[in-house]
Amino acid sequence: MKILGFIAALFLSSVAFGQEFLTKNGEVTFLSKAPLNEFEGKSSLLNGLIDLDKNLLDFYVDLNTLKTGIGLRDSHMRENYLETDKFPFAEFTGKIDEKPNLQVGDRRSVKAVGTFKIHGVERDIEVLGYLTKLQNGKLELDASFDILLSDYKIPIPKLVFYELAEVQKVTIKATLTQKK
Amino acid sequence: MRTAILTLGLFFTSIGYTHAQLERKLENTNQPVDLIFHAPRHINLLTVEPLEKKTMHFAIMHTFGTLDGGIENLFGLDNGANIQFSFEFGLSDKLSLGAGRSSRDKFYNVYGRYLLLEQTQNNTIPLSMSFAGGAGIVSNPYSFLSADERPDFADRLAYFGQVMFARKFSNKVSLQVSPTLAYFVNPLPIYQIEGNQNLYLALGFSGKYKVTDRSSLTLQYIPNLNSDLRSNFGIGWDVEVGGHVFQMYFVTSQALNEQYLLAGGNGVPGEEFRLGFNVNRIFALGQRKRGKS
Question: Nearest by CB to A64, which of B5, B31, B241?
Answer without folding.
Answer: B31
